[in-house]
């Protein structure tokens, strides 16, 4: 036979397209998806149907309107929908900058999916859960070394909840010093995560947002002017969304400390700094890591994750209760935290996520973590250099400032030339089995792309990604229609979003859809 | 000084020296030390982190961690009667199959196209839970019941522009702590007394405390202590007469047989999805839902994402998108958005959808019936023991009940210690959380308990107390 020639520049791709009905449309009266145990005959004989003992006003009148579907059809439905989801495992996941979507080792899931994890009740006697407590405790010890902080709580279930916990500690700290009313401001920066502003606002703080200087760094003079006796805390990411590291961070934190405030470090994404630099040396009093980002645990379409919250010695007693401790013989839960903010999440947060993070660290060690940070940065610098070879794409602020592990680009010039926006690009890139998310709002940088390769992609993966983006830029100039109408090879065609912001028309559930679209 | 890296690591393709050199060359850099140049020297670590040495193979990693985890005794090895916010139910195999699919497990923030499946499954979960609740709007799930309740109260406060919430006195103290922290400052939480015989809310105390500053009244069904609060309509009237919002927490596994709170006046319903197909995971699989009517004043106060259905340009095709995205902190508003949104528990929402699709109306009914029968049986059998009251409250419940050991002369701690020795995880000791109850324990019975499990429990307690 003839040699099969494979010289296409970009991937010839088509995502699964199943055009599945909505689950309710699969219902056929009488079908069962799973059988449920029934009470034994002796029990029924003794207590009857049980339900007649419930006051009639508390009994459900009729059955809930759930669909009746056989098991295979339920399975098929959800498997098809899974194929219509482009998880990190199946694509070269670079386009979700700030989210640190890296490889989630399968072995870690395997370890966490045994009954020794899944079938533990959170209130079991401590003697029966020494294993998981040991894992949590040992992960705490490793987190301390990685950050320089002194104690960790694994209660927060994600980064935003961790930020809220930090803001709660800030409030409690000043309350106990009698300064709660006076200190009513929290300072953040424009390229820190939106939750760094939103979660402290929930805790009643006035938010001061520091814009950047011409170098893309938080404006020091503006910051200095903002710090006062009203400052409760500084909540910041570094590097920020732009990938730019603020080299004067210690001057910032020193100012806050001198003014009597607390420094809170959003290290949700710490991927570029492992073994390079830590929260402690930069003058922070608290920090948190997203285990589902930096520590390789799966994102799960948006959780469950874990926002591991670390504090310096003096703030230990403010942490949510309880902490896992070790008395030299056994692991136990320490509830004796006298200034504690109480609790932020049920039980011990997400222990299965901590277990996976523990496995991740133990597969890398100090040398591996350092390699992660170096390669995350190398991949990023390589990606920037190669992508910018396309005229019209740039990184705002100084191009020659080395980014750390991610970068926010702007394709403004290409948009001006062609009318193709970053939103259009995001729709087209799916036709090649890739993904670019919309970046955090508001768009201070016009037509943004926020890309973060992490340590996961190989050079070949990076090159494929770069080629694909360049290919789409070419299309923008040569054949913009194909982008306007994209996606073509994705799961569905362009969505008509006009109903989504109109309360008369929006349909948040199937029942509302049936009601609002009823034909007379 | 150079810190050593880990070369040729399977998770880090470009830790391969040869490729590394090639990339560095292309960048005009000499070594990895030429990276991170923007970080000032005084902030840089000068030596490697002091961490345990990495395992040299996947096998050794697995072996070592299994060894630690094998120190645990799982609830499947013992008979478990613990509930109190995390309940052991049967998880159908298809639930595990779907939520361990790599596409869902490693998905995150894709667009409505490349993540069509994520959008549709979460829309379906919202729609299925809405049917169970007989309500219109359900959020993409939040962290847990406590968070859902806390946000519900904050929503009520924003809607009414009032700053106080009245909360049922039998609430789980841990849940209360989470709510209090989340609502502080802004919404003050006041507890309402409960009747010591029935557990029901003390309506006189409610009337005494409700005011024009009351944003919300909150109670639960079943209550934390298991019994049913059957005064829903009365509480609803008292609440609404004052222009406040009624928030009710509910265990969704009860709704095949129990009336959903929307039938007795709830404006906002919240609760936990964990009973719907989630393993316990040492409490790590809690997942909160919030539900309201489809009215703008409610919908616009959700901090969560709400996935809605929408047409595409192609006839006959379903598409999805975010409803009123701008209200969230992900929109242009940042700190002026509603509370905040971020990674919460989406995969568990997907799983709950799978569970409800499998169970169907009949499954949910049979589940509820079974649980009621088993609980009644357990209460009756325990009551036959000398000094034991199978149910402290003179009021029927669902799934959980307070067993009163006061007249046995033994503490719950003592009894539970001995039960453990017999391979039984006894109910949660309530003596610290509710000292007024003395020596009582919160027992949980679900469809996973066979008659013989309950009989073994009764036998074991008899041996301990007699």
TrEMBL record, chain A:
Catalysed transformations (reactions): N(6)-[(R)-lipoyl]-L-lysyl-[glycine-cleavage complex H protein] + glycine + H(+) = N(6)-[(R)-S(8)-aminomethyldihydrolipoyl]-L-lysyl-[glycine-cleavage complex H protein] + CO2
The protein, known as: glycine dehydrogenase (aminomethyl-transferring)
Listed InterPro entries: Aminotrans_V_dom, GDC-P_C, GDC_P, PyrdxlP-dep_Trfase, PyrdxlP-dep_Trfase_major, PyrdxlP-dep_Trfase_small
Pfam families: Aminotran_5, GcvP2_C
Broad enzyme group: oxidoreductase
Assigned EC number: 1.4.4.2
GO MF annotation: an example: glycine dehydrogenase (decarboxylating) activity
One GO process term, biological-process aspect: glycine decarboxylation via glycine cleavage system
Leader sequence residues: none
Function recorded in the entry: The glycine cleavage system catalyzes the degradation of glycine. The P protein binds the alpha-amino group of glycine through its pyridoxal phosphate cofactor; CO(2) is released and the remaining methylamine moiety is then transferred to the lipoamide cofactor of the H protein.
Keywords, ordered alphabetically: Aminotransferase, Oxidoreductase, Pyridoxal phosphate, Transferase
Residues annotated as domain Glycine dehydrogenase C-terminal: 374-478
Record flagged with keyword S-adenosyl-L-methionine: no
Biological classification of the source: Bacteria, Bacillati, Bacillota, Tissierellia, Tissierellales
GO cellular component, one term: cytosol
Limits of the Aminotransferase class V domain: 162-302
Top-level taxonomic group: Bacteria
Automatic annotation (TrEMBL), chain B:
SUPFAM superfamilies: PLP-dependent transferases
Entry keywords, A to Z: Oxidoreductase
Gene3D superfamilies to which the protein is assigned, alphabetical: Aspartate Aminotransferase, domain 1, Type I PLP-dependent aspartate aminotransferase-like (Major domain)
Keyword Cell membrane: no
InterPro entries membership: GcvPA (IPR023010), GDC-P_N (IPR049315), PyrdxlP-dep_Trfase (IPR015424), PyrdxlP-dep_Trfase_major (IPR015421), PyrdxlP-dep_Trfase_small (IPR015422)
Enzyme Commission number(s) from the entry: 1.4.4.2
Residue ranges occupied by any Glycine cleavage system P-protein N-terminal domain in the UniProt entry: 11-459
Gene Ontology biological process terms, A to Z: nucleoside metabolic process
Example of a GO MF term: glycine dehydrogenase (decarboxylating) activity
Protein name (Swiss-Prot/TrEMBL): Aminomethyl-transferring glycine dehydrogenase subunit GcvPA
